[in-house]
Every structure is written in structure tokens, then in C-alpha cells.
Specification:
The protein has about 140 residues and is an alpha+beta fold. Strands 1-3-4-5-2 form a 5-stranded antiparallel sheet, with helices on one face. The chain is built from 2 helices and 5 strands; from the N terminus they run αβαββββ. Strand 3 and strand 4 form a beta hairpin.
Length: about 140
């Protein structure tokens, strides 16, 4: 491996699959004009449930967020991309890592994107009556 290849490997990049992509708008801000953390958590939760629903083949619900770190604020007009990666599948639960990356409002290149938060979500599969069921039927 050449030194140039090593440098390219060190460039931060999202892990997982792009699950949601949206625009951060003024209606989603906190008192200081930044996008509210709760809004980001909501988007992450939706992405985790979409990924879990694909894996479980149906209805799911988030039961825990094991860890979450906010790394920097998100500004109005930023393009928000939410990536998901299934980490573990149990009998009825799925652990999913979720990352949020943003491109600033005037960003023109991929290099301008940055990770702003990450978390691990625990989601369970549900049957039609809202009871926990096996992720994969035996």
C-alpha cells in the first residue's frame, strides 16, 4: 500500500447505508438558531426504524438509545444525511448504529461534509398487536 492510499483511508466517511436525506429548515431550530438536537434524534429514530423494519420484515419500535454523542451544531440550510448500519440481530431485537453527516448550506464538494452525531439504537420487532416477536420467523 502506498502512502497516498493510506492518506485516503484516513479521510472520514460515513459508515453504513444512506437511509434518509433531508434539508435542515428554520422551523427546526432552537432558541439560538441551530437545528434542535431533538429534531436530529427524531430523524435518527426514523432511520433506525426504517433499517430495522427492512431487516425484521415489518413493524418495529425503538426501545433504547445506548449511546449518543453530539459533535457539532447543525445550521439552517444544511443537507442532513442519516446513515444506518445493522450491528447485531438478536431473537427479537436489532442494534443499529446511526450516523448523521451534514453538508453546509453552501457546500459544493463531498470533502465539506462532517459527522455531527452518532448513536446506537436498539429496536424490537412487533407483531400486529404491538407485542414483541422474533425478528426472523423460525
Amino acid at each position: 500500500m502506498t502512502p497516498l492510499e493510506n492518506d485516503l483511508d484516513d479521510a472520514p466517511a460515513p459508515r453504513g447505508q444512506l437511509t434518509l436525506k433531508l434539508l435542515a429548515s428554520r422551523q427546526d431550530t432552537n432558541l439560538y438558531g441551530d437545528i434542535a438536537g431533538g429534531w436530529l434524534v427524531n430523524q435518527m429514530d426514523q432511520a433506525a426504524e426504517l433499517a430495522a423494519g427492512r431487516e425484521a420484515g415489518g413493524r418495529t419500535a425503538t426501545v433504547a438509545i445506548e449511546s449518543m454523542d453530539f459533535l457539532s451544531p447543525v445550521r439552517v440550510g444544511a443537507t442532513v444525511s442519516v446513515y444506518t448500519q445493522v450491528q447485531e440481530i438478536g431473537r427479537s431485537s436489532i442494534k443499529i448504529d446511526v450516523e448523521v453527516w451534514v453538508r453546509p448550506p453552501l457546500g459544493r464538494t463531498l470533502e465539506e461534509r462532517q459527522k455531527v452525531t452518532e448513536a446506537r439504537f436498539v429496536v424490537v420487532a412487533l407483531d400486529d398487536n404491538g407485542r414483541i416477536r422474533a425478528v426472523h420467523s423460525d
